[in-house]
Amino acid sequence: MSEAASGVTIERPDPVVTPLAGLIGAEVDVDLREIDDDVFGRIRQAFLEYVIIVFPNQQLTPDDQLAFARRFGDLYRYPHSPGMKGHDMVLPIKLPSGVRRGRWHSDATFDERPPAISILAARELPSRGGETAFANQYAAFEALSDGMKELLAGMEAVHDASSHNRREEWTTHPVLRTHPDTGRTALFVNSEFTRRFADMTTEESEGLLEFLTTHAHRPEFCYVHRWRPGDVVMWDNRAAQHYPVMNRPEGEIRRMWRVTVAGDRPRYDAPDT
Q1: Considering 105, 159, 173, 177, which one is annotated as catalytic?
Q2: Which residue in 63, 131, 148, 234 has a CA-CA distance of 20 to 30 Å to 73?
Q3: Residue 225 a catalytic site member
Q4: Who wins on pLDDT, 104 or 82?
Q5: Is 107 a catalytic residue?
Q6: 14-261 domain in CATH 3.10.129.10?
Q7: Rounded CA gap, 179 and 190, in Å?
């Protein structure tokens, strides 16, 4: 007999939220296939607070992962990246093995409306390596001096997809971004997609942009996730950067499924004075 048919309300315990680092990340112990609206609300609250959430020991099908993502909003389709056969909104991720250099970034900031949330599920893991690092961009902003914050408040930057051989895909975004749900301010430039400041040349932009994109991932802002079988990790592209660590043995597979939630156009709301 179902819970509804029996007329009995079963009290489910609140999900346990365990912080993972000083300024970013928490683990939430819950089965994502069996969450009601109340539990989802608590997950969303933890997500907005901690910026990335790790869900251990999941057994999600593509439909399960899509259903969870849709609780947050419409889905985002990556340009020029084919999805999984039969589930075109699920993007298979297979990075090269061996030791290679990655790039710190927020996803697809060359888009006028970059994705808001990424949800990555581990499907097959190497014997070692293949971590993902995350950096809190609220913390990156808050650690800047008052003078630097004042300078950046009126600035915009040009983002393009030239690192993906598509230089013609570009847009401009504010250098500081107001999160649409929390109202907090985040630094919003990254070394993969941000090319220069608007109304400046690349040469003129170079020094300040290099400082900001390096400052963005100071170690104290970061959490490094060591993937385990069954892990699902979601992060907020509006307030975090991430870095795929490509350091696993040659020939060993790291296979992931990614589902992405669509976002809005970045904006900066100056604080009231």
Answers
A1: 105
A2: 131
A3: no
A4: 104
A5: yes
A6: no
A7: 17
